[in-house]
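Person: Show me a sequence?

Helper:
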Amino acid sequence: MSAPINKPPPRGLLHIVHALGYSMRGLRAALRFEEAFRIELVVAALMLPLAFWIGQGPLEYALLIGALLLVLIVELVNSAIEAVVDRVGVEHHELSGRAKDIGSAAVLLALINASVVWGLLLWQALSH
């Protein structure tokens, strides 16, 4: 009796369709299980229209919107790190704590970046 033949991974357009499905599943999981992501998403949705009031052209719109998206992206990566660490074990381990703290620090830096970008461009818009 021979071993079963594994199907090759999808290629081309089918690969993109599968990847999009995995991405949507990840976004649904973040919305369902990650309160910080939900809060940051609501804040980003409320601030998005303001980007077009504060910004003065495509480059500034991109900076303002990009800063919001960066916070969401880093929060997703941080949540993924936390999920993997929690999957490995619930007992305290120095490296597990370090991984979670570094992920949290990345979110903090993304929030600081967004604050600086938004603050500077708001100041510029109000001073004209």
User: Anything to note?
Assistant: Residues 19 and 39 are 26 Å apart (CA to CA).
